[in-house]
Amino acid sequence: MILTPGTRLNRYEILSKLGEGGMGEVFLAEDTSLRRKIAIKILQSPFTTDDKARMRLVREAQAAAALDHPNICAIYEVDESDGHTFICMQYIAGETLETVIKHKSLDLAEILGISIQVADALVEAHARGIIHRDIKPGNIMITQRGSVKVMDFGLAKPFQPEGANQSEAETVRLISTQGTVIGTLPYMSPEQVRGEALDGRSDIFSFGVVLYELLSGLQPFAQKSTAATAAAILTSDPPALARFNKDVPAELERILGKTLRKTPDERYQTIKDLLIDLRNLKDELDFQHRLERSSTSKPVELGPTLLTEPEHPALAATAKRTVPTVDLLDARTAGDKILSPGFRWMWLIAIVLLAVLGVTGWLLWRNANMRWAKSQVAKIEELEKAGKYLQAYDLSIVVRKYLGQ
To answer: Does this model's pTM top 0.85?
Structure first.
């Protein structure tokens, strides 16, 4: 049965085709009962011809439908009609993160904002025992209002052979004794590549790959062939970020490095811990930004109009009581106008407080960077012993910024 505009699947009327992927085709449809637009994903072979595969996908979709979070694309229903198994999802107007980063470079504030929303969505999913298994820019939607929606929880796509459209990332489906492991190769964790059983730490690794790409513009492990990419995920460290972006804060480099550890036990153990570190970093950067704006802002000049009497009689009386030096100010020349002693003390105290806050913030930032840099010395030595001289050199450049020679 070919689905065309006007075709009915139970109470859903097909409006247009939105796209297609490994699992099947996606259509824009209208829920005729609720009068709202939805997206329908029609599952196709081999997902529907094999009863076990179809039932597994249906169970996963039903579990994902229990997720209720503003940064997760909602799943409304899993149903069948005229031999079609389909999933009804929230229709989201916007662009994928993959499309966004092809057209523009994101600044640090935008990257942190997107990362925090994605991590928050994963916190909700992991808390309910659901792992995504395919975190990548193509599964992250940016709505027209700029908010994030994570798509395709619990859903999978089969392998795309070499020579397929390179605008679509390779998707790999591996079978092991642990079961079916699904993910997009350049974003897969080492344990996914090996076909092992997964937990939430696999999503953390994939999250780190996405974050690295947002900061550098490159996928950290992508190579010219599938085999080379898999080998890089298993054995190679990503190139130092300093080669592509010298403005990444040291704390963000530390967070990123911890997400990309090859061994799950060495990564963040929960996505919630990662989210806390990202939010703390954002708060610190926001605080520094406010300090910088405060230190560069000019005092507002108080002109003669501030001392004129208001038109309302009650306000005029109040103004006369609170500004007893109006006559004296009027007697002075315009070039000699100054604030009263009380205001001068207030300005002085404010300037002193800003200076103290600025120095304190700078010292905290400097100490945090120096602690991180000292902790990297041992890693540089390890890289040199392992013969990874280029990576050791790149890391030493970053460390030298904080420790000097």
So the answer is: no
